[in-house]
Specification:
Pfam families: PALP (PF00291). The chain folds into 2 domains: 279 residues, 3-Layer(aba) Sandwich (Rossmann fold); 124 residues, 3-Layer(aba) Sandwich (Rossmann fold), CATH 3.40.50.1100. The protein is 45% helix and 13% strand. It contains 18 helices and 11 strands. The chain starts with a helix and ends with a helix. It binds pyridoxal-5'-phosphate. Pyridoxal-5'-phosphate binds next to helix 13.
């Protein structure tokens, strides 16, 4: 299909080219029971990941003492944000029914973003596999022993590599260095200086590219292939990352029960997930569909300049199309979302499960950042606000649901230095004044 044919078949493309904030409803969505039969990722695989994270809890509480009070379980709070909810309605002159909750992955321990789920999980899996293979560990052992010098020595014989716009690199770099692995992070041109500095201070090798995320991943993959003791974390294709993210769903279910929030046919759940290459939001959405089936409606949120997943899903072309193909420049301040080409694996796994996808421009993200800080005293990085416009977008299009619970997934911000955060906040306030 050439560009003109594409634009003819998918009229929304012209709105995307005009950088409008749009919402797309997925016409290929079917009931989740049938959809789940068409994919190879299973509930057992997610359960296996959950069990592995439990096994590692005794290691994590030693290696990262800040996780000791939560017994080595990497999880974030789910909170009500009533003041933001009313401010949001006022700001957009749009009312919506139901309660607004924030899932605070910015507060995840170890690396302060959603990448502390999948990214850390995949490194734990590699470490376990190596140690078991060499008869140094049994799955019935107390994994706290992995925090000893003997293991640091052992892991230093192996290396880990990853390509990243920043946050995945931070997660993988921090956990890998802690184990003793040699670790290389291939960073795209948009990665922030403080992230490179922080990683280098931990002994991580940071390789910088003048190109975007896809090139950083490709180069990383190429270099890792040459070395058989090197494990490459493939953000575009990794099933391990995906199932690591999916574990979030069962944890969320428990939190909803503790809040006495019901999810059923009369009380649907709407979840809005900022999306870059797709692994994080796709994994979480997948886990939620496994648990809540047709009672949960998951939406991806992307910057107007980088709507790669929306484009891939809508056209069915997945990783075979990039936002450059429709003339978008993939430039956004939303770290982690500056991805021009989606994961084909994630797109194909979610194509019958996801409810839709919407876009948001950088200015709106900054405004929401300022509003959330002022109303709830919660500071997020710009990407983490991408989902906040979700309930507004749905309402504008006439989707009105009663008794709904809306969860905005706040994907990051916990590691942003306060000086940088101040700049984000000021920028938000500037936009709000206009
Ligand atoms: C990585 C990231 C996302 C998106 O995750 P993907 O797996 O790339 O789709 C969203 N928000 C933040 C803050 C991120 O770092």
């Amino acid at each position: 299909m050439d560009k003109q044919q594409l634009e003819g078949r998918f009229p929304l493309i012209s709105n995307m080219q005009n950088k409008e904030e749009i919402i797309w409803f997925n016409p290929n969505k079917i009931n989740s029971e049938d959809a789940l039969k068409n994919v190879f990722v299973t509930a057992e695989m997610v359960q296996d990941a959950s069990d592995r994270l439990d096994r590692f809890a005794s290691y994590l509480r030693i290696a990262f003492p800040e996780t000791a009070k939560v017994k080595g379980i990497i999880e974030s709070p789910l909170v009500k944000i009533p003041t933001m909810e009313s401010t949001l309605k006022e700001f957009f002159h749009t009312d919506f029914d139901g309660e607004l909750l924030l899932k605070c992955d910015n507060a995840l321990p170890i690396s302060g973003s959603i990448k502390a789920r999948g990214g850390i999980y995949e490194v734990l899996k590699i470490a376990e596999q190596l140690a078991i293979q060499e008869n140094l560990l049994k799955i019935t052992d107390d994994y706290g022993l992995l925090a000893t010098e003997k293991f640091t020595q052992f892991f230093s014989n192996y290396s880990i590599a990853v390509g990243s716009t920043g946050n995945l690199g931070l997660s993988i770099g921090i956990i890998s260095a802690k184990f003793g692995f040699q670790v290389t992070v291939h960073m795209s041109s948009d990665a922030k200086q403080w992230k490179k500095d922080m990683l280098r201070a931990k002994g991580v090798i940071v390789v910088e590219y003048d190109f975007d995320y896809s090139i950083a991943v490709k180069e990383g993959r190429k270099q890792a292939e040459k070395d058989s003791s090197c494990f490459f974390i493939d953000d575009e294709n990794s099933v391990d990352l995906f199932v690591g993210y999916a574990v979030a769903a069962s944890r969320l279910k428990t939190q909803l029960e503790q809040m006495q929030t019901t999810v059923d046919a009369e009380n649907p759940l709407f979840v809005y997930l900022p999306c870059g290459v797709g692994g994080g939001p796709g994994g979480v959405a997948f886990g939620l569909k496994l648990l809540f089936g047709d009672h949960v409606h998951c939406f991806f949120a992307e910057p107007t300049n980088s709507p790669c997943m929306l484009l891939g899903l809508m056209t069915g072309l997945h990783e075979k199309i990039s936002v450059a193909d429709i003339g978008l420049d993939n430039k956004t301040d939303a770290d982690g979302l500056a991805v021009g080409r989606p994961s084909g694996f994630v797109g194909k796994t979610l194509e019958q499960l996801i409810s839709g996808s919407f876009t948001i421009n950088d200015q709106t993200m900054y405004e929401l950042l300022g509003l959330l800080a002022d109303t709830e005293n919660i500071l997020l990085e710009p990407s983490a606000l991408a989902g906040m416009i979700g309930p507004i977008q749905l309402t504008r299009l006439g989707v009105s649901v009663q008794n709904a619970t809306h969860i905005v997934w706040a994907t990051g911000g916990g590691m942003v230095p306060s000086q940088e955060m101040k700049v984000y906040y000021e920028k938000g306030k500037q936009f709000l004044k206009k």
